[in-house]
Specification:
The chain is mainly alpha-helical. It has helices at residues 3-11, 26-51, 59-79, 90-99, 102-113, 115-119, 124-145, 151-161. α2 (26-51) runs antiparallel to α3, α2 (26-51) runs antiparallel to α7 and α3 runs parallel beside α7 (124-145). It is found in: Cytoplasmic vesicle, Secretory vesicle, Synaptic vesicle membrane; Endosome; Presynaptic cell membrane.
């Protein structure tokens, strides 16, 4: 096996793309993967910076820093397993996460990013490190919602929900002048 084959094998995602993920734009997939990778490196770095809170006896920031470093490691294992190929279980974990729906990834990343905010809210390193993991969760949440429908599709769905259209009202009437809204007792 040549060196290029080994590199391409490391860079390829295990499990491949599922058929359910075909409606997601390519740029959004790359945005989620790129922000997750870069954001996890930044979260690990700033988590280490948060751990320096032990010097000022700020224990909640120390715990937030440790949590942030662990969250960054988990995200990098899921998003870029080629960065941690020396750990045995990374391939299987990455493959399991790749087969999961996007909303599972979104929920996991949002859940990993929130606790440091409660522990060390006023730290810039918490905002930047965990904020990028949170943004990755937001992108995966948007990917889970899927593509927006066309105007005609949305109009058809809105019309299908109600059996009859309500009567058109005069929108220039005030609340007191509209006989359908205000009825004297």
């Amino acid at each position: 096996m040549s060196l290029t084959d080994k590199i391409s094998m490391l860079m390829s995602r295990p499990g491949g793309d599922n058929a359910q993920k075909d409606d997601v734009p390519t740029w959004m997939r790359y945005a989620g993967r790129g922000l997750g990778t870069v954001g996890s490196f930044i979260a690990i770095f700033f988590g280490l910076f948060n751990c320096l809170g032990i010097l000022t006896l700020d224990v909640p920031c120390l715990i937030a820093g440790i949590w942030q470093m662990l969250a960054g490691f988990i995200v990098i294992v899921c998003e870029a397993p080629c960065c941690c190929f020396f750990i045995d279980y990374v391939g299987t974990l990455s493959q399991k996460m790749e087969t999961r729906p996007y909303w599972n990834k979104a929920a996991m990343y949002l859940g990993l990013a929130v606790p440091p905010f409660f522990l060390c809210f006023f730290s810039f390193s918490t905002w930047l490190g965990s904020g990028l993991i949170f943004a990755t969760g937001i992108i995966y949440g948007m990917m889970a919602l899927g593509k927006k429908g066309s105007r005609d599709d949305m109009a058809a769905m809105a019309g299908a929900g109600s059996p009859a259209q309500p009567p058109a009202h005069d929108h220039t009437l005030t609340l007191m002048e509209d006989p359908d809204v205000w009825r004297p007792i």
